[in-house]
Amino acid sequence: MTSLSDLPLRDNLVGLEPYGAPQEPVPVSLNVNENTHPIPENVVADIVASLAEAVRGVNRYPDREFMELREALAGYLGHELVPEQIWAANGSNEVLQQVLQAFGGPGRTLLSFTPTYSMYPLLASGTDTEWIGVPRPDDFALTAEGVAAALREHQPDIAILCGPNNPTGTPTEREVIRAAYDAFDGILIVDEAYQEFDAERPSSVELLPGRPRLLVSRTMSKAFAFAGVRLGYLAADPAVIDALRLVRLPYHLSALTQAAATAAIRHSGEMLATVADIRAQRERLAAALTGLGYRVHPSGANFLLVGGFADPAAAFEALRARGILVRNLAIPGHLRITAGTEAETSALIEAITALGEPPAAD
Ligand SMILES: *Cc1c(COP(=O)(O)O)cnc(C)c1O
User: Fold this and answer.
1) Domains, in order of start, for the chain
2) What UniProt keywords apply to this chain's record, in alphabetical order (predicted)?
3) Nearest atom, ligand 1, residue 116 CA
4) Tens digit of each residue's pLDDT (9 = 90 or more) over 31-44
5) How close is the Cα of 322 to the center of ligand 1, in Å?
6) Which one of 136, 167, 299, 361 has the minimum C-beta count within 10 Å?
7) How many angstroms does the Cα of residue 224 sit away from the middle of ligand 1?
């Protein structure tokens, strides 16, 4: 046995911590923004049938270009997208890593607006790309002018707009994306991991025509209740997809992943039927916490960033002691809470009410 500090690790990885949201078997897990509703039984049966069929062929490598799945994803996204504009990998994290491998790297930069998804700087260091985190305004909402000014100043090779933004929930407005695209010459990624929950705003997929440097990243991990399968995808100009095919590992999407995802998309209506309930629970939770005196930030996602905790670490532990896991992201005074089922939301409201401490002013 040796220790990490004794190994000849790459310089830019020294001192880093791995991504580490706690994984614990508690009754109420509201810490990583999963869809906590189960998949309908008839959909389970159809996925299992597709998997059985796929297993019969696993002596061969899978379709490297996963065309059936790309056709299904193009159909799901609509807007006359064709399979040549679609890419997928094992979670959108891998899709984003491939984008960084193709367009980032040593001497290049990745910019985003913080606080935002904690994986972006980790993906940057993993590909030796310089990370530029530009702080968001106090209400976390990006403006077209602010974003354009930052992109003109830094001229990054890649910029990511996360909308709705994790961990704040803040939606990203259409004019912000347009202004961002026009402000620099690099790759612009809109990370729409939570898009299905933002019924108020259309997908940036609509903005793709005429914008060959725009990449729209999506995932089946959140609204689709498919986090365990690991399937993220992206829509962009076919030339961008050609770039990603240069860096992907051959056969990166297993035959089982392709079969399960293709089957699930056949049932997208049923798979997404829980979205309306999750949105309703989000609003119920927001109203209850606001009533208790907490500060709830506007959210277009399946979670809320909640301020007013005098001691977020203590509140986190008190909730954990009651079997409820939420996320403490070290934003002063704040916790991030996923909207779950009606019963989970009830348990959470009860537990926060029982904390009994008056919310801190912030
Ligand atoms: C959860 C999440 C993802 C999705 O990751 P997967 O690898 O697809 O599970 C991507 N971006 C953001 C902002 C997320 O919150």
Assistant:
1) 23-39+273-353 (3.90.1150.10), 41-265 (3.40.640.10)
2) Amino-acid biosynthesis, Aminotransferase, Histidine biosynthesis, Pyridoxal phosphate, Transferase
3) 13
4) 999 999 999 999 99
5) 27
6) 361
7) 12
